[in-house]
Amino acid sequence: MKKLLAAFTLALSLGTFAYAAEPVKAPVAAEAQAVAAPAQATATATAAPMAAKAAVAAAPAEKKELKANPMVTIPIFLLIIGATMCVVVWSAKQTKSAADFYTAGGGITGTQNGWAIAGDYMSAASFLGISGIISLYGYDGFMYSVGWLVAYITVLLIVAEPCRNAGKFTLGDILSFRTEPRSVRAVAAISTVAVSTFYLTAQMVGAGKLMQLLIGIPYKTAVIGVGILMVGYVVFGGMTATTWVQIIKAGLLMTGAALLSVLVGLKSGMNPFQFFNDIATSPNVIEHVQKVVLKDPVAVAGFDYGQRFLEPGLFLKNPLDQISLGMALVLGTAGMPHILMRFFTVPTAQAARKSVIVAMFIIGFFYILTTLLGFGAAIHVTPQAVMNVDKGGNMAAMMLAQKMGGDIHPFLGDLLLAFLCAVAFATILAVVSGLVLAASAAIAHDIYVNVIKGGHADQHEQVKAARITSFVVGACGIVIGIAAEKQNVAHLVALAFAVAASGNLPVVVLSLFWKKFNTAGVVAGLVTGTIVSIALVMVSPNMTYPKKVAADAQKVVVALEKKQAEGAILTPKEMKELDKAKVDYEKNKDGKSILGLDKPLFTLKNPGVVSIPLGFIVAIIAALAFPSRRAEEMFDELYVRQNTGIGIAKAVDH
Amino acid sequence: MAEKQYNWSAIAKNPKFMELHRKKTTFLVGWWVFSTVFYFLLPIGAAYAPGLFKIKILGRINFGYIFALSQFFVSWGIAMYYAHVANKDFDRLTRELVDELK
């Protein structure tokens, strides 16, 4: 068995190297014209808007691309893949029992776990997405990032220590303590798999698109490559490897963000007042806020458009939607199965406490640095250049890296960009590995070992089941990732948090703290929270409504045709837009959303404000309607255990 | 490793445990509610009191920016304070309870 394992590891790493190496061919073939191009490309990208502004302010710059230099990027990628592979080989040797596989034998220290939580949590979306929103809309992006940290207060005060004291491997372990285990475990597993799948799909699609954009790997290859690495980490290394991949990633991400922030800070003389002055007086920011964000064709006299960038309301327009998202974050993070699972890897409640606090400092610093990067990109890259590469601003941090490094030396620009690409890649790997592990634990430990085998399985069989399940879950992740390439996945992250907040969190809290809670409550709460969240998102503005697409296309057609009728000659870019809009209109004018709707039934993007209270209420009503004497009698035991850790299974010393 | 049999309902009625439980509940619920209310003041304030958020406090740095930044420090503060109280009070009470049960 051991030899077989080693052979598999070898084959797998070779396979991944092959995948990682494959894209080298394409860029190398085109190297003749490309080798010096990347540095120039962005130099023109950043210079273009200024030049354009000086000459003819209205001339739209051609769409620019950001390309990393493969000669620098590929070696850094290989270095990271190689380092993580060493970790996998090392952890595979240590993974013998089910506890080793799911919780690294409980042998992770508080500080290590804190870094791993941060690595598990900070996704590429928050790094690239939030800095992008800040570079385009200023203050609102910063405000948006706050909830992601505040969420950890709930984790720290309410769930971390009780879960460490009362749990073993999964959410199902905590929920089935004083309830009818089979049905509760089955439902808990379904909810865990649902949350993980939503989150995983969003990450996989993001990974594919990002790698495609940054280093020109085809979408499918990128998804398969990420998928193979993720399966390799989890199947062979279990929790130990996943933990170390997350720690490495968190270290890389913080290094990258800190380095760039220092470079941004130096440009403003390390003076915060100067920095804010630079933002508010940047002519590019002023023009962007006036023309693109507020759409004032002529500047309103006396209005400080630069200062407006530092005030709320440019991006987040619906307060109820924001409150709804805030609720989903504050309660959902504490119900995320891959985060909960991290608390089983430490030996004591004290270590669990310490790990949340370490994680909070890392995550908090990270979001503050992200703000600096976002504002830095607004000053030095300019919102116009950021939008030229990606309308949503997702490339802002990457462009900033190339600009900041390139200002010192062109090679340094390529190096910094390559480093940040690698960081984004490591970030994706760390998050998806945690998700695959959480989903497989729910299937293998809850469904297979406890529901199907009734808890009778020896260690060898449990580990085997866990490995096979991880392999299958990972393979499904790859298939879903490829299938979802053209789908709208932006809502999936919000959906994952909403399900965790409305389904998982209410039943975890009620199980731990309410004596009368029981089987009926857990099942009803989980099912309601999950289904209501999914249903509300399916009829929300997150989905694509063809009639709306058609209406928007129609607007473009009307505007451009009016321009033409007035005698203006359209640029080639505008002609293309016109043709595309006409096609879009024809294609979509009679379409309906997936559920056959013309427009959203539920007007919020985030269902939390409705689904979270509903999850709590249904769980409470069901528990009261079907009282269980046994569940009440066992409450004392659970309550003493979760508060004190008495009777906790001692972690095995390594 | 045979697990020791505990009389759970007796422990639950132990005065030490009752004290631990009471102190913990007050602390945890109180600070959780405080942090949540403080957090939701941010989106609510930004939406309904934009005038307040625009007031410049230090140079071009306005109230909104300082308030959003304060969220980070308040969260860290609560976390540190909780760690302090938990290490000092809750862990001590738990240890005393466990020693008593030996």
From TrEMBL, chain A:
Q: How does it sit in the membrane?
A: Multi-pass membrane protein
- Signal peptide residues on this chain, from the entry's feature table: 1-20
Q: Which InterPro entries match?
A: Na/Glc_symporter_sf (IPR038377), Na/solute_symporter (IPR001734), Na/solute_symporter_CS (IPR018212), Sodium:Solute_Symporter (IPR050277)
Q: Name one GO biological process term.
A: plasma membrane acetate transport
A GO CC term attached to the entry: plasma membrane
- Give compartment(s): Cell membrane
Per its UniProt record, what NCBIfam families does this chain match? sss (TIGR00813)
Q: What is this protein called?
A: Cation acetate symporter
* Taxonomic placement: Bacteria, Pseudomonadati, Thermodesulfobacteriota, Desulfuromonadia, Geobacterales
UniProtKB/TrEMBL annotation, chain B:
- Key words, A-Z: Membrane, Transmembrane, Transmembrane helix
Which superkingdom, per the lineage? Bacteria
Q: Which PANTHER family match?
A: INTEGRAL MEMBRANE PROTEIN-RELATED, MEMBRANE PROTEIN
Q: What is this protein called?
A: DUF485 domain-containing protein
Asked if the Swiss-Prot or TrEMBL record annotates the protein with the keyword Cytoplasm, the reply is no
Give yes or no: UniProt keyword Amino-acid biosynthesis: no
Where does the chain cross the membrane?
29-49, 61-83
Q: Which InterPro entries match?
A: DUF485
